[in-house]
Amino acid sequence: MRRWLSLEIAGEFVLLALVGGFFVYLFIESLYWPLGSALMPWIALAIGAPFWLWRVAVLFFQWKQSSGQIMDIGFRIGDDPEGQRGRFIRICCYIAGLYFAIWLVGFHIALPAGLLLYVRFYGKISWVGSIVLALFFVALIVGVYDRLLNSSWHEPPLLQWIYSFLPESQ
Amino acid sequence: MKKRAYYLLLTAIVGSAFVAASALPTLAQAPKDLAKHFNSKPVTVIVGSSPGGGYDTFARIVARFAGKHLPGNPKFIVQNIPGGGQLRGLRAAMRSRPDGLTIGLLHPRFVQRELAGIDVPDFDLKTVRVLGSPSATPVPRIWCVRRSVATTWEDIKKLGRPVTNGGNAPGASFGLGPAFVEAVGGPIKMVYGYGGTSEIMAGFDRGETEATDRCSDEHVPRLFPGWIKDKVLAPIFWWEKEPSKDWLGQLGVSNLQHIHDVVKPTEDQKNVFDIANRLVYFTRIFVTPPGVPDNVYEAWRKAFEQTTRDPGFLKAAETAGLEVGLGTAEDFRKSIEAFDKLTPAGRKLLKDLITEG
Amino acid sequence: MLEASISAAERLFSPGPLLVMLIMLPISLISGMMPGGNLPIAVIVLGFAGYLDPWITVTAVVFFLAASDITEPVPSILMGIPGARSAQATILDGYPMAQKGLAGVALGASYMCTLVGGVIGAIALLLALPISRQLLKMFSSAEFFLLSLLGLLCVAIVSAGAFVKGVLTAAFGLAIAMIGFSPITGLVRADMGIEYLWDGVPLVPIVVGLFALPEAIDLVVADTPIAQQRLDTMLKEANRDVYRGMREALRHKWLLIRSSLIGTFVGMMPGVGSSAAHWIAYAQARHTEKGALETFGKGDVRGVIAADSANNSVDGGVLIPTVVFGIPGSGGMAILLAILVLSGVQPGPAMLTRHLDLTISLVYIVAFANIIVVPIMLFAAPMITRIAAVPPNVLAPVVIGIVTLAAYQATYSMEDLLLVLGFAVLGIFMKRYGWPRPPILIAVVLAEIVEKFLWISVNTYGFSMFARPQFLAIIAIMALVMIVSLRLQSGAQKALYEAASAKP
Predict the structure, then answer these.
(1) What is the ipTM of this complex?
(2) Interface touch A119/C397, C-beta < 8 Å
(3) pLDDT at site B45
(4) A151 to chain B: nearest residue by CA?
(5) DSSP labels, B30-49
């Protein structure tokens, strides 16, 4: 297997494809815009495109890269790849599940409940501690966002479905 | 492991049942008793822009005084739902329960879009119930050029190039005069992108632009009094409302011509300009969603008109430096109808002038 | 002026305003630590404008904004989550310090810089007020364009070592910022048919997706608290660490003062201010401080000093265009402007004559906020430091919950959360493959300003902008920075190369 097919390189190609894809989309769209709107996108593309090509070439031909980077030097990788993969999948599933639950039943239920379950079972906090944390979130949502800020919440489909069975009272 | 799953399920069920029960909506009352109806929960005014702008400020002032004039004297909440150039707020207001307890603010751009044949989702000019506009009053608008560049329209034409005029974005109310001149091929070039009146005037002040449409006694004495003292401005034309003799005197002229007399457009173009002008100054239109019961709507419309005459409201608007003048639902209807009488060429010019892009 | 100063002090230090400051104090401390947290509270104060005396509402909002800025570096240092417009450069060195167990030192340095920077900003504001109109008239859209460009350039320079990736991501950020309504032509650009994108991509979901979620994931994956070294010492010697940080800040007094002055000056440029200043200050420190090229970004306290002193001295600067010209430099300033207008105080020259006392009181409030809040935060710092020791499986879900709520406040719709998820995926990829993330953020923030001022200057000045001495002066400074940085970089590369080849 050629090295540039390895995960290390292929992953970055995904990133490059994403960025390049958006550049192309922006360029095609910009052809229909008057100069006032198209000028800045063209400047962005003119800056980005050469560096994009350069990066692709570096990866493709596996040129030596300079070191000394100071930002974003990757995740903290330890010596337990199996466990790390497991934890990575777990936390990502938690976030995805949490957001799905927020959509389904709304912030008021999903956020405290999700937090409660996570810190109880993975954070190894006692039931009391977990409930206190969850209540803190209830207080935050109701006290700050509902009462103080008058946030408008989206209408969760599950609750609406339940409400549709309730009689309309006066 | 089994025990854990059991706990998980139990917590989820108990938790959701508890919260669902506590979150049951208080349902709207039947509007037989209007006082009771309006008092059932706070009235929400949905603003489609972030806090701090003209729309938000007006909404807050209306919210402060409208309660006094509605049956039951309800409390008010101003809710900002920014997004989509005020479209999200409008849609939220239009989709809200038609009980008169939620009202919204309509930006004229959506009226213009509908007129231009572009569908605005959730919004229909025919079904929306307009309460009126608190700021539909003609104000004197004057276009001035820097005295060192030119002093008359003839001078400007002799320059052989257009003079630059700073603007916010196409379709804005102040720029209508110069934008019209540009659209009919006159020697003005609009430079859009400035953040608002203050930025436009600061741009003129540091010599960046050569002309300005912010030349009225509403702005100059407050922000740049030096322009009068140093005789920077040469007024060229006015539109919308004739400026006062006193202000013209301060600008160094005894009288000023209307835009039509200076630019000399065709009859059709004149018509277009007048309609565009009416549409453009009919801003901050307060609306209720379609389907609001007639008695609730009528109560609201009356309350809205009274609010705009409330001395407290007038004073608050004056302190905030806002021009107040009631545009009624009827006035609004009339401006829309005038559009139907235009020629196709006129419609195209109007679209260029008032819609964006 | 003297009379107004005394009258301002009398009115400000009366029971009403003092009480308001007392009420706003805890609110500002907490909300400053939440991403995107400070605007909603300022909006609440706006709700009182017109009912209450402007001395109360203006005090409330300015005190709140100044005080919450002070706590903004806390999540940057402890969790690597930047503020939407400020405290971004702080993460470059603050977060690595926290990982080394030096959170206390970083916080101590940060607060000391905040205090000094804030006071310098306030004094500069006071000195600049009488000449502010003339001063600002010297600069035009052409120079504002250059300065905002300089902000962008600094990020690219700072990402040295990953220069290609840095510029590429900055360009990507610019491209993202092109989505949505373009005021110049009134067109909605590249919305991909999604109505949500008409107003462009909101900032807080970007911060949350790009930084907060990947950092939370990193915590769980690594399965250790943020501080991986000297965990016990860190907790035991928290107080000593904080004082060490303060001393460090004072030891680098010239850096501190220089960065503060940069912050104030850039802050005065309308619109450019708060987002670019701390980057410019960080970049200048990185290229002027001894050995900084090797140590910055790895937990050098001087990086924190430069970023945070500029971060806070900006507050004094941005007030000038706001009150004198009515041009708000940030979201918070827009709200201050609205409060002034609703209270019947029209921004403009009258702020320097009729309302001079109110204007001067702004200076007092900014200075006073720093003087009160910093000691409180110093006192609390040892406690706050403990965040770095919280087990990852407790800290991560709490952070995720809070930032999710914050992101949802952008437009109150589920699309906000989808956007967060999208940027989280991007953020994870970028972090994994070593693509610097801050350039995207700064590009998104500055793109609008760069575009606007570019268009205006091209259309009003054309080529004659190159004949403006102010314009040329800024270009000369930029060129100088570039040359110096390239020389230093090649020197550093050489040293690195030699060090590498010297190894067996």
Answers:
(1) 0.92
(2) yes
(3) 94
(4) B79
(5) PTTSHHHHHTSSPEEEEESS
